[in-house]
């Protein structure tokens, strides 16, 4: 595997890979530790050093390593560092052979890459990976909604998470009433609204958006047991439960 730029101990503040140099290996860390820690700390030099140390003469193994590194870059995305290293790392992994297309055919055993992006990263990264072959998973919108509901108290994260939800619904046209699975599976809660209702507080903004786009809080989960209203009451999220009950009551009155 050929890595550029050449080894050095310097790292610039630029997001361009032309100005990032690979640092010397850290004693006591395996290459995979360096890769993982580098993504966690947004340390591009450590990531590249780890990938170089783990590379082999087998192109298939190197490609698998890059693909795993790509997933780590997506997983460790943070709103305040998107424009620094994370996006560049995603581009770098793709440009050096990482496969965005999910290799595990069962989305319930291995989280599809775009589901990870939907809940943790930006619309730009989502578009990029989709253009490189990453497929939508059955819970892409569900994970985005859950992340938005859980970001209600974070003024930096919430706009990023809501932008993802709006993109998935308004631009990609994902169904706001889609179930998260066919048949019955544990830890599957039903529609995107049911995922929004998993939070103990907050969630009103994303719920209002979904209701405005036609989401129905009365649709029950795959066990035909719990709907979004039930979940909000279970979580003791009184404002959210009141919002959902009020919407349901208004719809009943409109039909009369």
UniProtKB/TrEMBL annotation:
Protein known as: Uncharacterized protein
So which residues are the signal peptide here? none
Residue spans of the ANK repeats: 188-222
Kindly indicate whether the keyword Iron belongs to this entry: no
Pfam families referenced in this protein's UniProt entry, alphabetically = Ank
Give the residue ranges for region: Disordered: 1-35
Query: In which domain of life is the source organism classified?
Result: Eukaryota
InterPro entries to which the protein is assigned, alphabetical: Ankyrin_rpt (IPR002110), Ankyrin_rpt-contain_sf (IPR036770), Cul2-RING_E3_ligase_SR (IPR051616)
Question: What keywords would UniProt list here?
Answer: ANK repeat
For the keyword Membrane, the answer is no
């Amino acid at each position: 595997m050929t890595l550029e730029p050449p080894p050095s101990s310097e790292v610039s503040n630029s997001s361009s890979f032309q100005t990032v140099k690979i640092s010397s290996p850290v004693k006591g860390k395996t290459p995979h530790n360096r890769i993982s820690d580098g993504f966690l700390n947004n340390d591009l030099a450590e990531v590249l050093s780890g990938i170089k140390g783990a590379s082999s003469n087998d192109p298939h193994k190197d490609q698998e390593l890059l693909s795993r590194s790509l997933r780590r870059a997506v997983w460790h995305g943070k709103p305040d560092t998107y424009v620094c290293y994370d996006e560049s790392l995603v581009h770098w992994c793709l440009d050096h052979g990482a496969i965005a297309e999910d290799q595990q055919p069962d989305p319930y055993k291995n989280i599809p890459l775009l589901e990870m992006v939907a809940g943790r990263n930006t619309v730009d990264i989502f578009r990029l990976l989709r253009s490189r072959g990453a497929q939508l998973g059955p819970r892409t919108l569900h994970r985005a909604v859950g992340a938005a509901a859980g970001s209600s108290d974070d003024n930096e994260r919430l706009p990023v998470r809501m932008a993802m939800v709006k993109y998935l619904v308004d631009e990609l046209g994902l169904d706001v009433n889609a179930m998260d699975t066919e048949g019955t599976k544990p830890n599957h809660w039903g529609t995107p609204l049911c995922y929004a209702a998993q939070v103990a507080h907050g969630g009103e903004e994303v719920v209002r958006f979904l209701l405005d786009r036609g989401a129905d809080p009365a649709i029950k989960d795959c066990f035909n047991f719990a709907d979004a209203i039930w979940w909000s009451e279970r979580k003791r999220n009184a404002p959210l439960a009141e919002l959902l009950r009020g919407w349901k009551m208004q719809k009943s009155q409109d039909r009369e």
